[in-house]
Amino acid sequence: MNIYLVGYRCTGKSSVGKILASKLGMKFTDADTELVKRAKKSISEIVETWGWDEFRRIEKNIIRELSALEKHVVATGGGAVIDGDNVKHMKKSGIIVWLRATPFTIRERIKKDHGTKDLRPALSVKGTIDEIDELLPVRNRFYEEAMNYYVDTDYVDINNVCRDIIKIIETAKEKL
Prior knowledge:
The mean pLDDT is 91. 58% of the residues lie in helices and 14% in strands. The chain has a five-stranded parallel beta sheet with strand order 2-3-1-4-5, with helices on both faces. It is an alpha/beta fold and 176 residues long. It has one domain (2-175): Rossmann fold (3-Layer(aba) Sandwich).
């Protein structure tokens, strides 16, 4: 079984994923990092050079490949759940945990993250910060449809988020 962490940018997918994988004795893969490795370009460069459609195509291939593996914690890109095929692959091979955060928390985390420009290019002409209020409600509908479980990451440290996810997994295993 794999664990897929989904959610908007700066909700903790990568940070939580690394620690969660370590605590569970699983492997960790960050889908965006894998995408950057394969393309040999930053996410910003991929989007500027090839566009979002090509980014999503590469992302889709990565999700499909990761879904064939076992015992992986995968931090997906924030938009991975927009593609129904990605969701099918994830559900078939594991559980999907939505890491939720409020717009305020996301804004504050983006402001503190010096890598945001290269790692998280704006999805609209408004810019990374200004687009949150418009895009987050749209994305949240996709996360809600895709997820098996959710964990709020506002005002909670990474270890507590991991603890909550581990409890969820233990409960899920009992139901199987």
